[in-house]
Amino acid sequence: MQNPPDLRPDLANARIRETRRDGQPTIGMVSLGCPKALVDSERILTRLRAEGYGISPDYSGADAVIVNTCGFLDSAKAESLDAIGEALAENGRVIVTGCLGAEPEYITGAHPKVLAVTGPHQYEQVLDAVHAAVPPSPDPFVDLLPASGVRLTPRHYSYLKISEGCNHKCKFCIIPDMRGKLSSRPHRAVLREAEKLVEGGVRELLVISQDTSAYGTDWDRETRRALTEQPITTLARDLGQLGAWVRLHYVYPYPHVAEMIPLMAEGLVLPYLDVPFQHAHPDTLKRMARPAAAERTLDRIAEWRAICPDITLRSTFIVGYPGETEEEFQTLLDWLDEAQLDRVGCFQYENVAGARSNSLPDHVPDAVKQERWERFMQKAQAISEAKLAAKVGQVMDVIVDDIDAEGIATCRTKSDAPEIDGNLFIDEATQGLAVGDIVRVEVDEAGDYDLWGRRL
């Protein structure tokens, strides 16, 4: 999985524009993988910028290139190796970090000329490798670092990573092996970063982690005993006081998630939950080593909607998991019919080196996985189409992401996360609009995944 092209700094040259001073060393960055990896890239570049390094938007202007890799799926590993090879061919001096860096022999076996390999979130080791390859040459009178640090996303939204690692042991996932157990950032540190981002013009905070609803559950007993509610609830409440949209991603459906739904009903947090259900049949969930509680999950969805009727629910699923029978898959389709989720993504299962699911019996043939994926997406599309059609005539707030040369504004509603959900387009009366504006529109047309509206 890679970041979309306009979020990849190696492809989005307009994202970083700096004037290089004489003698200033410069570093390029290729950032692959999920938004959590993008945050790691931003932190690395911020540290380097603070040491006087310039950030190059292309290979040719860089003294060395960092490739932040993804290693979650075999296809992502292949993409990472391709990116490393391209950086070597274009620049020649390459430092590798990120999830695939947890397998250094795998990388050096394919690309023995890389300068160094470090694992995920090993910031100090990355800096050491950069120092060895390109010694710093800071000028404290010239090298000024923005208060919000170096960011690779548009100015009006930013990812906010609240924890690292995961305590789950899902058989198809190797993230805990690569990134370790859950390690939550201190509440005050997260809030301080969010405050700086909002002060710097960010209008939307996208809260991310590997398991957002588990935030703070790894703190010591004394710290947790002093709390009156779950740490994630307190954090969400405090973030909601900053005046920006707050969107929660990767929320496991623990019972305490219900504590946050009233915050959505009150308008402190966007009425949006990104919940990785993965499947619905209890036997499939058991083989995945995930909580087999599909019935209780439906009850929780009903509870959430009762508290906040406008809530948008997003999820991802895996089809073709080893041992998945036609009956189990049909249970998933029936569950989807009942759950009526607003935003849905689906992946065909594939083996990942080191994952325990590889050794499970009864792997599903590729043709069957493809056929089930198509059936799943057909049903998901029909649900999305019906839900969006029901929004025609509604008035809602949207945030402007882009305005093209013809004056068409690409926006998102509170129900849409950047890059993964749909858009709302305004194709007239966009004079005076700017990226990052939040404006009210009336929806006048709906498609399968997108909306069109007129500005009020």
TrEMBL record:
<keyword id="KW-0689">Ribosomal protein</keyword>
<keyword id="KW-0687">Ribonucleoprotein</keyword>
<protein>
    <submittedName>
        <fullName>30S ribosomal protein S12 methylthiotransferase RimO</fullName>
        <ecNumber>2.8.4.4</ecNumber>
    </submittedName>
</protein>
<keyword id="KW-0808">Transferase</keyword>
